[in-house]
């Protein structure tokens, strides 16, 4: 049975570069996914319109001891539960993880638990801080995080490509070329680690 792997755009602000980064990653990973009988799909967090967590039940208790009552929570839960693994596309804002990213992770527990995930972060200097923070949060909800975590910086640092990304949500050609040359191999490696984790599942912990 083919594994279903989601590439998740975790930024929700406007403008945002996340969709372009997701498309870039999707294009790189598609040949390997096809040869591995895996299906890739892009999931855009913005379409779920998640408020700051507003359920009366804590995520760890769903579904064994309670149920979500809001449609946005049910949709997000069903989407994440439908995939076997994830590639999170993570921005860094003001030297930290975006609130939308953290909130989306915290909405769920059992839907994530035991599954593999990779983190691809992006920002002026590659989003190292956000990548570290997201790694801790994902491991906290039981995800198996790939050791290879690509960190994509804008070409020239604080320069034209950074302003293009931040101001318009567009990926500059210099940055795209730099990412292709410097990060293609590690993006593919992070995905290979997901595939390896899928081939070697661990027993899901019981609450």
TrEMBL record:
Signal peptide: none annotated. It comes from the Eukaryota. GO terms for cellular component: cytosol. Residues 4-143 form the NADPH-dependent FMN reductase-like domain. Pfam families: FMN_red. GO terms for molecular function: FMN binding; oxidoreductase activity. PANTHER family: CHROMATE REDUCTASE, NAD(P)H-DEPENDENT FMN REDUCTASE LOT6. This is NADPH-dependent FMN reductase-like domain-containing protein. It comes from Trichoderma harzianum CBS 226.95.
